[in-house]
Amino acid sequence: MKLRIATKSWPAYSAWNENIGNFEGLSIELLKYVMNDLNFTTEKIQTPEDDKWGSLENNTWNGLIKMLMDNKTDAVFAPLTPLKDRQDVMDFSLPYHFVRPMLIFKNHLHENNSNERGEFFFLQPFSNITWILICVSVAVMGFLLMALEKQKSYIFSTEHLFFLGTLFNQGGGYGINSKGYVRIILSGWWIFSITMVAFFSGKIIADLAVYKAKYPFDTLEDLVYSKDYTLITLGDAAYESLLKNSKSWTYQALWAKIAKAARDNPDVRHTDEKVIIQLVLNGGYVFLTGGYEPIINNHPELSIKNMGISFSTYNVGVQKNSYYNVLMSNSILKAQHSGMIGKWKKQFLSTPKLKIFEKTRFKSTISRVSLRDIAHIFYIVILNISASLLTLVLEILLVKLKYYNKYK
């Protein structure tokens, strides 16, 4: 039996190869496998006249889906996603590839050298308020100890040098006496100092040893309000339909931004991925797509980011209620179980992991330890003072009790 097959050019899945005069890629290898498994043959592979994937435009379907509906083809072997509105007019086989949607962009905002650090880099592990509270703690604890020791001179002296010295793991040369409340003050401060020094040392070592990349946006909401980047996707493709028909406020806002950008530059909704990639390379655009592997392979200067958008799938498309659907789904299962699809993925979709960020430079950032992160450490000082004062009161009471019993 001879089937009519349609596809649309897309790198690594169904790309046209001038050298062999035919299409090649994962979807085409699957086509060959299915035809051989079912003992079918194919006519020359067709492409849609309007070069579109298939979307509902003015209540009329276009692209590959129109070819199925007009009975111009029996099956579509291309990276086609089964959206709900498409499923109303055609059938889809079992999926042969699961796709994680990614954002592809050129990070033109931050191109600083990651090795450039400020003159006061050593202060950056702690936030400003944390440093202020540490200084206040040294002063307060010094004055408190002076008061407890009944010092006459209220200037920075041995007590302050002790509390400051412990923070540098040097001590202060302060002789610990036998008074219980003094010992509590000093031991509590040592716990505070050791903890603070551990936080500081660990943080500064991590910042020096580990390079952190800062993205120009973190969420899809950031892209809605961004003045530097505009989200785009392939015209009349699955992700455009997803944004356009979604009830999510974020998706609707992104689609409104795309529509506005398209009025100024029609290429924003172009159906040719080469045009879209060129826009991304020029800067200022973020491309939402599923088949990012071949793009990154060809343009390692671009960056990718996963925004947590739900997985989508690529399936073979057939006419509504076509008996070919079950046959092709069974054949796809055989290809999965035999490991052939995994082999084709390695052949056409493998992406050198180190190349993804190889030529993209980000602004290096230091995640500073805020007061909220170490607030519990300052509680040690408060509890320490409270325990010391309580001990002082008890010692005074014991002294008075001993004096009372002696002269009773």
Automatic annotation (TrEMBL):
<keyword id="KW-0407">Ion channel</keyword>
<keyword id="KW-0813">Transport</keyword>
<keyword id="KW-0472">Membrane</keyword>
<keyword id="KW-1133">Transmembrane helix</keyword>
<keyword id="KW-1071">Ligand-gated ion channel</keyword>
<dbReference type="Pfam" id="PF10613">
    <property type="entry name" value="Lig_chan-Glu_bd"/>
</dbReference>
<keyword id="KW-0325">Glycoprotein</keyword>
<feature type="domain" description="Ionotropic glutamate receptor L-glutamate and glycine-binding">
    <location>
        <begin position="12"/>
        <end position="70"/>
    </location>
</feature>
<dbReference type="Pfam" id="PF00060">
    <property type="entry name" value="Lig_chan"/>
</dbReference>
<dbReference type="InterPro" id="IPR001320">
    <property type="entry name" value="Iontro_rcpt_C"/>
</dbReference>
<feature type="transmembrane region" description="Helical">
    <location>
        <begin position="189"/>
        <end position="210"/>
    </location>
</feature>
<dbReference type="InterPro" id="IPR019594">
    <property type="entry name" value="Glu/Gly-bd"/>
</dbReference>
<dbReference type="GO" id="GO:0015276">
    <property type="term" value="F:ligand-gated monoatomic ion channel activity"/>
</dbReference>
<dbReference type="InterPro" id="IPR052192">
    <property type="entry name" value="Insect_Ionotropic_Sensory_Rcpt"/>
</dbReference>
<protein>
    <submittedName>
        <fullName>DgyrCDS12882</fullName>
    </submittedName>
</protein>
<feature type="transmembrane region" description="Helical">
    <location>
        <begin position="377"/>
        <end position="399"/>
    </location>
</feature>
<keyword id="KW-0675">Receptor</keyword>
<dbReference type="GO" id="GO:0050906">
    <property type="term" value="P:detection of stimulus involved in sensory perception"/>
</dbReference>
<keyword id="KW-1003">Cell membrane</keyword>
<keyword id="KW-0812">Transmembrane</keyword>
<feature type="domain" description="Ionotropic glutamate receptor C-terminal">
    <location>
        <begin position="2"/>
        <end position="351"/>
    </location>
</feature>
<keyword id="KW-0406">Ion transport</keyword>
<dbReference type="GO" id="GO:0005886">
    <property type="term" value="C:plasma membrane"/>
</dbReference>
<feature type="transmembrane region" description="Helical">
    <location>
        <begin position="129"/>
        <end position="148"/>
    </location>
</feature>
